[in-house]
Amino acid sequence: MHLAYPAVLAALLFSVGVYGVLARRNAVLVLMSVELMLNAVNLNLVAFDAWLRDSLHAGQALTLFTITVAAAEIGLGLAIVLLLFRARGTADIDRATALGDPAEALAVEETPVDAETPVDAETPVGTGAPADAEALKGRAAA
Fold this sequence. Notes:
Elements: H1 4-23, H2 27-52, H3 58-88, H4 102-107, H5 133-141
C-alpha cells in the first residue's frame, strides 16, 4: 500500500476540520470539527505504523490513547455546551464570550474614564472597569 493515499486523505480531513473550527459558530459543530481533526491524526498514526512495519505497533497504541483522550474531550465538551445552552438559550460561540451569570454579562459595559473621575487603586487606568463585583451588581440592578 502506498503511504500517499492515507496521508492525502488525512490532510483533507484535517483541513476540513480546521475550516470547521474557524468558520462555525455553533459549539457542537466546532466539537465535531475537532473530532474530525483527531481522526485525521489517528489515520496518519495507523498509516505510518503499517508503512514502517513497527514490531511494537507504537502507532496503533498511540491511536488507542488518542481515541481515549478524544472520548473524554467530547464528553466534557458536550457537558459544557449543554450547560451553556441551558444558561443562555443558544450554543452560539460568539455569544459565549463572558463567563458567569448572563445578567452580569449584559451589564458589563465599558464606561469612559475622564480626568474628573477619581480612579481607585484597584481599577486599572483607562479601562473603566468596576473595582469589584458589588459595583457590577449595582450597575446591573440600575
